[in-house]
Design a protein that fits this description.
about 120 residues; 6 helices; about 0% strand
């Protein structure tokens, strides 16, 4: 059962890493970064705040692949997703509420399955 849990946690971590690195990168470079700038401005956030969120998503997305940092990375991603959820809800963007709820829940599951003793178990094997 532990091996199944560990395998599910790795799959979940890889999925979260892929999604958050991709979305974070889209906030920093390429044509979609202009759309993010417009969205953040429309939502009333300071200029350049999308850069901060993008960098946090990339760093946490990479860190979630490192067992020792997984819980902290997952917590960071959950906080970002709570912020996204609140932003979309406050602006009546109800269809956009679903991704933060789903991704935040997956980050919570990753943090939960990476319980306090998880890194020690990983080092012993």
């Amino acid at each position: 059962m532990k091996n199944l849990s560990r395998m599910v946690n790795w799959i979940l971590s890889i999925l979260l890493a892929f999604v958050f690195v991709a979305v974070g990168t889209s906030k920093l470079v390429g044509p979609s970064s202009m759309h993010w700038a417009q969205r953040f401005q429309r939502w009333g956030y300071p200029t350049g705040s999308y850069y901060v969120i993008g960098i946090l998503e990339i760093v946490a997305g990479i860190a979630i692949l490192i067992p020792r940092w997984r819980r902290m990375a997952a917590a960071t991603l959950m906080i970002i997703m709570v912020g996204a959820l609140c932003t979309h809800a406050l602006h009546g963007e109800w269809a956009r509420v679903i991704p933060p709820v789903l991704l935040g829940s997956l980050a919570f599951a990753s943090a939960h399955w990476s319980g306090p003793g998880q890194s020690e178990v990983s080092r012993k094997n």
